[in-house]
C-alpha cells in the first residue's frame, strides 16, 4: 500500500492545544478525515488537503465505524498522507485503536500522534487538577457509553472502593445512571462532583455539586461534557480571569488572530463572526517620488500597499523617498513585518493623536497622502485641514458590512451566551446589526474601539464598553474585570 495514515490527536477543542507535530502534519496532509469535535481552525491549517467529515453527531445519522475504516483504506490507497484527526487523544475512547488495527491488518502503515485528552484538559480548564496530594492519588477514566442493550458496563463497587478521581466521558445522557450506580455501591453521597461542558472551548461551563446533587444540577448540559467525581472537585485553581466568559470578534476573515489568542490566554471563549468584508480597490499610480508623507490608517492599508508594490514588481525599497506614518500599533507592526520602521508612530491610537504627532513634523513642501478605506474616519483629515496642511486620500479598499453567522454563533447570541461583541469600526457595527435585526441589546455588551464604532453602537442603544484602540491589549483592558 502506497499511502500512510496518521491518527492525530486534535486536542480537547481549543485549537491552541494542538501539538507542534500535529501542526506539521496538518500542513503536509493530502487528506484529512475528521470528527465532530474537531475545531474548524485546525482544518484551516490544511488548506491544501481534501477534507472528509465523518462527524458522529449523536442522534443524527452517524457515519458507521465500518464506513470510516473503509474511507481510510481507500484514501490510503491513493497514496500520500492521510490524517485521521480525532478529538482529544486518538487512543482514548473514540475507537482510534480499532482504526489502527484495521489498517494494519490490511497492510497500511498507521502511526498515532497523541493529543491532549479532554479527560484531563477539560477538568484542568475548569480549575480542577486531576490529582492532588492528600485529596486524590489516582485517576480513573471511564466511559459512560452504554452497550446496545442500554446497560452500563461499569464495575461500580470497584470504582467506589478505588477512590481517587473518577472521570466519566460520554456520560451526558447516562449521568444519573452513573451517579446512581456509585451511590448504590455505597459511595459517600457528599463526595464532591463536577461537570465540565465544552471544556477549553467557547461557552465552557463548570457545574459543581456532590455525587448526590450533580445529576440534577447538570440537567440541560449538552455533549461534549465530562463528569468528575472526587475530592479534587472542590478545588477551583488558577482560573483565568476571563474563564467562562465569551467574546465574539467581528473583524474581517483572516484578521483578528492576535486578539483571539490574547482573549483565549485569559481564559475567554472566542467566536469569530466577520461583520465586514474588505474589497480591494485599485488606485492610480502611488506617489513614491517624494518628498511627502504616506499615512497608513489601518493594518489592512499597510498590507494592501505591499500587495500593490509587488504587483508592480517593486518592494519596500520603492518607499525609500517617502516618510511613513501609522495610526496605531497594529499598523506599525504590519509595516515592521516588511522591514520598515515608521517615521511617525504615535503612542496613542487614533486620527487625533496621529495628527498631533504628525503636524509639527510635516514640512511645507511635503504633501500628505492618506492611505486607507474609501470611507476614512474624519478625525485625522479634519485635524490636518484645520492646521492648514493639504492632504489627499488614496482609497486602497472599501469596507462592506456583512454578517453570515453559523448556527452555533446565532444560537449563542440569541440565548445571551456571548458577553462581548467586539467592534473596531462603524461598518462592523452595521454588519452585525443587519445580521441580527431582532437581537435584544440586553443580550450582549458592545466593546467599541474608535469613535465610528462607538457612534454607530450608541445610535442603536447598545450597552457600550469603550476601548482606547483595537489592539488586543486595549480590548483586554476594556473588558477585564
Ligand atoms: N479521544 C477523546 C475522547 C473521545 S470520547 C479525548 O481524548 O478527549 C468523546 C467524549 O469526550 C465526549 O462525550 C466527552 O465526554 C469528552 N469530551 C470531548 N471533548 C470535550 C470537551 N471539550 N469538554 C468536555 N468533554 C469533552
Tell me briefly what this model is.
This protein is of the alpha/beta class.
Essential attributes:
single chain; 481 residues; alpha/beta; five-stranded parallel β-sheet; five-stranded mixed β-sheet; 17 helices; 21% strand; globular; binds S-adenosyl-L-homocysteine
As a percent range, the share of helical residues equals 25-40%
Separation of termini? 57 Å
Compute the CA-based radius of gyration.
Answer: 27 Å
What fraction of the residues are assigned to beta strands by DSSP?
Answer: 15-25%
Largest sheet: 5 strands, parallel
Task: Give the ligands present.
Answer: S-adenosyl-L-homocysteine
**Outline, from the CA principal axes?**
globular
Catalogue the unreliable spans: none
Strand line-up across the major sheet: 3-2-4-1-5
Number of distinct helices: 17
Structural class: alpha/beta
Mean pLDDT: 93
The count of β-strands is 20
Amino acid at each position: 500500500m502506497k499511502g500512510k495514515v496518521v491518527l492525530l490527536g486534535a486536542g480537547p477543542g481549543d485549537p491552541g492545544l494542538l501539538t507542534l507535530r500535529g501542526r506539521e502534519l496538518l500542513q503536509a496532509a493530502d487528506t484529512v478525515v475528521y470528527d465532530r469535535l474537531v475545531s474548524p481552525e485546525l482544518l484551516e491549517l490544511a488548506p491544501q488537503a481534501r477534507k472528509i467529515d465523518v462527524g458522529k453527531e449523536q442522534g443524527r445519522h452517524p457515519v458507521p465505524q465500518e464506513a470510516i475504516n473503509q474511507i481510510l483504506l481507500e484514501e490510503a490507497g491513493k497514496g500520500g498522507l492521510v490524517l485521521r484527526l480525532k478529538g482529544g487523544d486518538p487512543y482514548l475512547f473514540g475507537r482510534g485503536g480499532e482504526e489502527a488495527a484495521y489498517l494494519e491488518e490490511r497492510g497500511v502503515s498507521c502511526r498515532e500522534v497523541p493529543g491532549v485528552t479532554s479527560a484531563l484538559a477539560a477538568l484542568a480548564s475548569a480549575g480542577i487538577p486531576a490529582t492532588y496530594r492528600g485529596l486524590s492519588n489516582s485517576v480513573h477514566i471511564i466511559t459512560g457509553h452504554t452497550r446496545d442493550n442500554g446497560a452500563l458496563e461499569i464495575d461500580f463497587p470497584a470504582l467506589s472502593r478505588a477512590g481517587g478521581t473518577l472521570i466519566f466521558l460520554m456520560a451526558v445522557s447516562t449521568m444519573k445512571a452513573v451517579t446512581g450506580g456509585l451511590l448504590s455501591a455505597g459511595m459517600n453521597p457528599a463526595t464532591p462532583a463536577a461537570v465540565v461542558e465544552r471544556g477549553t472551548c467557547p461557552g465552557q461551563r463548570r457545574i459543581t455539586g456532590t455525587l448526590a446533587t450533580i445529576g440534577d444540577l447538570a440537567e440541560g448540559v449538552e455533549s461534549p461534557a465530562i463528569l468528575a467525581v472526587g475530592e479534587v472537585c472542590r478545588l477551583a485553581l488558577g482560573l483565568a480571569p476571563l474563564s467562562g466568559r465569551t467574546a465574539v470578534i467581528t473583524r474581517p476573515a483572516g484578521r483578528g488572530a492576535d486578539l483571539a489568542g490574547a482573549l483565549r490566554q485569559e481564559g475567554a471563549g472566542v467566536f469569530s463572526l466577520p461583520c465586514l468584508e474588505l474589497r480591494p480597490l485599485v488606485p492610480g499610480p502611488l506617489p513614491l517620488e517624494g518628498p511627502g508623507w504616506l499615512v497608513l490608517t489601518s493594518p489592512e492599508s499597510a498590507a494592501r500597499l505591499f500587495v500593490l508594490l509587488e504587483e508592480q514588481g517593486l518592494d519596500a525599497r520603492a518607499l525609500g523617498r517617502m516618510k511613513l506614518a501609522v495610526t496605531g500599533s497594529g499598523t506599525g507592526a504590519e509595516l515592521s513585518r516588511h522591514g520598515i520602521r515608521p517615521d511617525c508612530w504615535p503612542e496613542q491610537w487614533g486620527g487625533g493623536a496621529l495628527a498631533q504627532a504628525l503636524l509639527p513634523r510635516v514640512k511645507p513642501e511635503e504633501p500628505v497622502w492618506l492611505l486607507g478605506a474609501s470611507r476614512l474616519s474624519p478625525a485625522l483629515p479634519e485635524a490636518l485641514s484645520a492646521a492648514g496642511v493639504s492632504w489627499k486620500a488614496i482609497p486602497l479598499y472599501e469596507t462592506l458590512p456583512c454578517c453570515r453567522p453559523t448556527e452555533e454563533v446565532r444560537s449563542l447570541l440569541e440565548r445571551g451566551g456571548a458577553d462581548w461583541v467586539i467592534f473596531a469600526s462603524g461598518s462592523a457595527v452595521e454588519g452585525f446589526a443587519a445580521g441580527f435585526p431582532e437581537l435584544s441589546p440586553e443580550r450582549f455588551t458592545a466593546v467599541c474601539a474608535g469613535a465610528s464604532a462607538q457612534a454607530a453602537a450608541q445610535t442603536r442603544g447598545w450597552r457600550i464598553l469603550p476601548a482606547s484602540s483595537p489592539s488586543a491589549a486595549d480590548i483586554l483592558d476594556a473588558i477585564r474585570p
